[in-house]
Design goal:
With 453 residues, this protein is mainly α. Helix content is 76%, strand content 0%.
Length: 453
């Protein structure tokens, strides 16, 4: 190879992605965005209850934001694949800043009514499905497939940190200075997320994107996910713990009150342990996730998650349950990060937004899974319900592994995708280039490494 065509290898190490200035700006935007978003979950509940005095209002606020997220998500993925992603993200973030600022102004002048709050959360529920797939899709343009594992781990770590710390800080500010100041901080964070994103280079759509009607592209994304054996297997595998095991978090209050009798303080400890576990799991992948044996990492963390949850459900002592719930969330976060990385590396750029939207919808299934698990807890008790869910998660996950040849061959498929990406030079730190090495979309001829079914 001549000197003109030589290139440096992609950065390595637990914080390798942060060596790309473009990723640093994106990461800063994500951190500000998710801290504001998670803090506002607490504030909206406080406002809804204070404005109405009704417990039903709390559920209504969450319902109004959840329904459009579920309905609009597939279209958000289509749009993310059709348009320039940075502009889409910044447009959505501008709407969020405007929405939060309107609530702040109404609060300052004591003009806020409950319907104002519902209108704003509806706008947010319609906006998030456009922002989130584009945020995920733009990562590949910055770090390439070679850097996806580290980038996804750092992003998941930041999101989990925001999920834990954001509500705590919001509650602290409410107690110290009042709701208005929380909204002022949220508006500031959303604005910072907007300006940080402005420093990220443009990320144009793949060639030919947007040439077909929206419905056709929506169905094309669904057909791709259904017809590509490795991606289909990974999506199915990811849904199992989301539907069966993750709903255990909704039952933590039952464990705290009725099993170990530790009350609200104990519930806070359990929730904090779960959140810290999520952070540790993400950063574990950042530090130790660079392995060619992704299948072993993915399945071992999934089985360890279900096993830890089973031991948690059977624990007779609260002090033993705390480290077990922490471990369960360490493994759950590590599994989720690994699955997300595999899917991000394998999918072609032209359907990336649509597949990310599908993944976003699967995470919305956790509340749906809470219904049967809660009903089982009503009939058998929370420990038995969580134990059954854990065992079923183990059994179904093993069944999917044994039934799917594509899943068992995921290491070779993953290596082939990285090798294809390595045929061209990786993006230099600070410069965005297409990830390259795409896998064929549904309906195209597939090279041999991707024909495992």
């Amino acid at each position: 190879m001549t000197a003109e065509h030589s290139f440096s290898p992609a950065p390595r190490g637990p914080f390798a992605s942060l060596q790309y200035p473009q990723f640093r700006w994106l990461f800063a935007s994500n951190i500000a965005f998710f801290f504001a978003m998670n803090g506002q979950f607490v504030v909206r509940s406080v406002l809804a209850y204070r404005l109405t005095g009704s417990e039903f209002a709390l559920g209504l606020v969450n319902l109004v934001v959840a329904i459009p997220m579920l309905v609009v998500s597939p279209f958000g993925g289509v749009i993310a694949d059709r348009v320039e992603k940075r502009r889409l993200i910044m447009t959505g973030q501008a709407l969020l800043v405007t929405a939060e600022l309107s609530i702040l102004v109404l609060l300052i002048f004591d003009l806020l009514h409950f319907w104002h709050l519902l209108a704003v959360v509806f706008v947010m529920g319609c906006t998030f499905p456009f922002i989130m797939p584009a945020r995920q899709a733009i990562v590949a343009s910055i770090v390439g497939r070679q850097g996806m594992a580290n980038a996804m781990a750092l992003q998941m770590g930041g999101m989990n940190a925001a999920r834990v710390v954001g509500p705590v800080l919001a509650g602290f500010i409410i107690a110290l200075a009042g709701v208005r100041w929380v909204y002022a901080v949220a508006v500031t964070l959303y604005a910072l997320a907007f300006f940080a994103m402005a420093h990220v280079d443009r990320s144009p759509p793949a060639p030919g994107a947007g040439s077909r009607p929206v419905w056709s592209e929506l169905l094309g994304g669904l057909r791709y996910a259904a017809s590509d054996p490795p991606v289909r297997a990974l999506l199915v595998l990811s849904i199992i713990p989301i539907l069966l095991a993750m709903p255990f978090q909704a039952l933590l209050v039952v464990f705290a009150d009725d099993v170990w009798h530790v009350g609200s303080a104990g519930l806070g400890v359990l929730q904090a342990a779960a959140g810290v576990g999520g952070i540790l799991g993400s950063f574990y992948i950042a530090f130790f996730g660079e392995t060619p044996r992704r299948l072993r990492l993915m399945m071992s963390t999934l089985f360890a998650f279900a096993g830890s949850l089973l031991l948690f459900s059977l624990s007779p002592w609260f002090l033993l349950a705390v480290p077990l719930v922490l471990l369960a969330d360490v493994f759950a976060s590590a599994f989720t990060t690994t699955v997300n990385t595999l899917i991000q590396v394998l999918i072609p750029d032209e359907v990336r937004g649509r597949v990310m939207a599908l993944m976003m919808m699967t995470f919305g299934l956790t509340p749906l899974g809470t219904v049967p698990v809660s009903a089982l807890a009503e009939a058998l008790g929370a420990p038995a319900a969580v134990a059954v869910a854990s065992v079923v998660t183990l059994g179904l996950s093993l069944a999917v592994l044994l039934a799917s040849r594509a899943l068992r061959g995921i290491d070779a498929t993953f290596a082939a995708a990285l090798a294809a990406d390595a045929e061209g030079p990786p993006p230099a730190p600070g410069r965005m280039q297409p990830a390259g090495g795409r896998r064929p979309a549904a309906g195209e001829a597939s090279p041999a490494p991707f024909e495992a079914g």
